[in-house]
Amino acid sequence: MTDTPVRRTAWPDSAARPLVTPLQPSVVYAAADPDALDAQYEGRVQGYAYAREGHPNADVLAAKIDRLEGAEGGFVTGSGMAAVGAMMLGALKAGDHVLGGDQLYGRSLRMLGDDLPRLGIATSLADPTDAAAIAAALRPETRLILIELVSNPTLRVADMHGIAALARERGILLAVDNTFTTPRGVRPFEHGADIVIHSVTKLLAGHSDATLGYVAARDPDLGAAMRQAAVTWGMTPSPFDCWMAERGLNTFELRYDRAEANAAALADHLAGLPGVRRVLYPGRADHPDHNRAGDLLQGRFGTMLSFEIAGGRAAANALVRAAGDIAFAPTLGDVATTLSHPVSSSHRAVADEARTALGITEGLFRLSVGVEPLELLQAELSAGIAAAAQVAG
Ligand SMILES: *Cc1c(COP(=O)(O)O)cnc(C)c1O
C-alpha cells in the first residue's frame, strides 16, 4: 500500500488552546455518516457543512459585532452592499414599497432606484432629518424604511426618534445603516430600529483590507429569512476576510475614540483657518443639527467631518497635492486619515442642480479622520488649504 498526500491528515491535538482565532478556510466539512449529517441539518448538534451556508470565522466575527450592537443572531455578509441586498431580499416581496433616506450611500440609492423596481418593489426617497417629510412619503404598502443616521458628506443628523415612532405606529420595519455612526456613536436597537446593517469594510474592520457587511434583526424569524437570502444569493463572506476583520475589530474602540477626538479638534482648527468657508461637524455649535446630534449621539459626534474652501477644481487639486501624506481616497473608516472630494467621487453621478441643493460644491471635501498625531494632521491640512488659497487667489 502506498500512501498519498492527497489524503488529509489529522489536525494535531493540543491540550492548550490557541490564543488567536484560527483561520478556517475549508469550504466543506466531512461528517461521520448520514445520521450525523441529519442531526446537524435538523439542529440537534451544531456543525458546519458548506462554507456558503456558514463557517466559524464568520460566526466569531458576527458574535463580536452582535455584542457591540446589543444584537442577537446577526450574520456577516461578503460586503456592505451584500448586507443591504440580503436585508431587502429577505424582508420584501413584489408589491411592497421601500422608503429610503434621500442621502443614502450611493450604491444603496442605486439599488432603490434601479434594482428593486425591476423586482416589483416600489421605492421612493425622503429627507430623514424631517419626520414630517418621511410621514408624508409613507404608503399603505410601505414595508421598510432605510436610513443612515449621519449623512455623507454633509453630516446631517436623521430624526431617529421621530421616524422610529412613525414606524412603530404604522407597523413598518425601520432599518438603520450604522456604518458611519458605528455602535460607539449610537446603538440603533436602543432607539427603535428593527434591523441594523453595516459595511464592516469601514470603521469596524478599520484597515481597508477586508470587504464585509453585517445584518441583525430584532425579530429572529426575519433575521433567519435575511440570512437564508444571503446564503441563496451567494452573499456570504470569505473566511480570510472575516479573520482579518476580527483582528481589526479588536482595536475598534481605541481607534474610534482617538479618531473622534482628532476629528473634534480638527473641526475647530479648520474653522479658524483663512480660506475655509465652512466646517460641517455635528459636534460644533454651528452645525444645523447640533442639538439633535447631542441628543441622539450623546456627545459621540464621530470621526467624519467636511469642510469647504473657495475656488473651483484647480484649488481642489492644489489642496490634495499639498496635503502631505493624507491619502486622497474615496473611502472612510481607515485607521489613517483619508480625504475625499464628493464632486469627483461619491456624488459624481448626482445631477449638478441636486448637488448644489445639497451644498456639494467643487470646494467641498470630506475627511475620514484617523489616529495620527493631531499636530501632524493640522500641519498637513493647513499646508493643503494654504496651497488652495494661492490658486483661488
Ligand atoms: C461603504 C458603505 C456601504 C457599502 O459597503 P461595501 O462594503 O463597500 O459594500 C454601505 N453603506 C454605507 C454607509 C457605506 O459607507
TrEMBL record:
**InterPro entries given for it?**
Cys/Met-Metab_PyrdxlP-dep_enz, PyrdxlP-dep_Trfase, PyrdxlP-dep_Trfase_major, PyrdxlP-dep_Trfase_small
Q: Which chain positions lie within coiled-coil regions? A: none
The record, for Pfam families, names: Cys_Met_Meta_PP
State the UniProt keywords alphabetically: Pyridoxal phosphate
Q: Which Gene3D superfamilies match?
A: Aspartate Aminotransferase, domain 1, Type I PLP-dependent aspartate aminotransferase-like (Major domain)
Does this UniProt record's set of keywords contain Disulfide bond? Answer: no
Required cofactors, per record?
Answer: pyridoxal 5'-phosphate
Domain of life the protein comes from = Bacteria
PANTHER family noted in UniProt? METHIONINE GAMMA-LYASE, TRANS-SULFURATION ENZYME FAMILY MEMBER
Q: Which family does it belong to?
A: Belongs to the trans-sulfuration enzymes family.
Entry protein name: Cystathionine gamma-synthase
Please report the organism this UniProt entry assigns to the protein. Rhodovulum iodosum
